[in-house]
Records
---
Amino acid sequence: MTLLLKLRKFIRLKNGDRQLLLLAGLTLILLRLGLWLLPWKVLYAGIRKIAPISPDLAQPDNLTLYRVVKAVNRVSKLMVIEPKCLARALTTQLLLIRQGYSSELCIGVAKNQEGKFEAHAWVECKGRIIIGKLSNHSQFKTLPSIDNLQYLSR
């Protein structure tokens, strides 16, 4: 699809969808830079200042989940280097939190067939994976929630 066709398609979107795509793109770019330049602890503290997780966040409806995940996936495909799972998962979670909805960032580890260590990040909501589902997902051992660890360390 040529750039002109993509631009026309973007312009024809509803205003809310256009804004969500722009916000997803900006968030994903900033998170990728942050993951590359900052120590995890500093980046995570900054993320939590921008989008604090609180127990009173609502459960998103399926349409909201669909729109957010679609925006993150669309923006990811437009990038020169497709973002890794952690940047995509963090972007999805941030967009949901900024809209007042809860979700859980999950990180899992596994050994591949060659015995090498692998890690993967995904977001769960309403008991299901909304972004980051893999065909071999059951191999990954989920680490304790980052947010639960933050509360335990207080």
---
Amino acid sequence: MKENIQLHVLPNLYAISRKTVDIFHDVHKKSNNPIYIVPGGATPRIFYSILSDRIQDWSKTHFILSDERLTQNK
């Protein structure tokens, strides 16, 4: 069985975000009904900023927030 694993060593969070946007863009344009689970917090801000300029059609796209701060304390 062939493994399709690639290792990318990048110098900083901006480079990581740009590479991740490239990968996300390829997946998004191939999907007919995309559903994504996305984290919150400060780390993905650069990714979201770059992504918002890159994707033109968000129709039929659904997001589920995974941030642990969304849980309700009783």
---
Amino acid sequence: GVQTCALPISSAGDALAGTASLGLVAAAAVGIGVAVGGLWRPSTAAEVAAIFVVLTFLDQLLAQPLGLPDWVRQLALTAHFGAPMIGRWDAAGVVAALGVAIGGIAVGAAGFARRDVAR
């Protein structure tokens, strides 16, 4: 007999739109970086944002093959996006990423506003 593929068929447009998930991760990283820079030290903001991105990637890549508990995989923000490359988005994950981005920028802006940068 002929074997069929169990993967869902999606359009190129779904995959193209799915790349927006990379933008959501980037926006969240910016929010984290701005928050760290505003509340702590701007010199460490990029490092903390980079650590967030790397840990998210490693969590998604290794948690399941290493047999780690599901809650470990759920720590990654990207675990909550659904399956964007095939057109299935999880709205809660999108809202969470935007919340981290907007909230981080707001917290960072408040932190920068507290400083007396004129000195």
---
Amino acid sequence: MPARKILRNYRNVTGISHNDHTFEMTAFESMLERDYILMLKFSDQIEYYDGQPLTIEYQYQGKTRKYTPDFLIKYKPTPVDKEPLTELVEIKYSQDLIVQEAELKPKFDAAKEYCKQFGWKFCIRTEEDIRTDYLENIKFLLRYKSLDMDLMHLDYILRTMSTLRETTPQELLASCWKSATLQAEMLPYLWYMIANNKIQTDLGTKINMKSRIWMADLDNI
């Protein structure tokens, strides 16, 4: 349940998105927040996230104020970081950070102090962090992530990939089928496997048919 009610907003686009972690709907107040939710949905490093998760009370100029950050994110533990990272995140356009600096600074200072109590990290994300090639890649791949696929075709591509170990989408499909028609028909299978981390690539660079792809770790297969 969000800590604040999302009101109709005529400056930005508001809406809701299904949260696979909480099985509820997560509200967003801008297109930038919506794009950030897509990144959260796609990541396999996140254990849990929630929108408008809590409200922080703080004192400023002799009055009690309230501030509700946009997201709370808990990451999965890693071999290096055994204590899972938890982030309290604010999403803002970079121009708003400049124009609203005096208003936002006490809110952000209060959030940093709040996070210290729990060992969390307070983060501010802007369009420079979100509107990247990575976002464009996951927007493309998300359409394939939940498709029903023929297991026989998936297994054949994966076995071919395990032999090649590292290649490109173009070369992998050519190694599987001589027919250009079949290669085109099977291309969604390849995007499905990349979307589900069966085959890996550098998602920080725009994906194309000549992108470098490689075999995922056996634990992901």
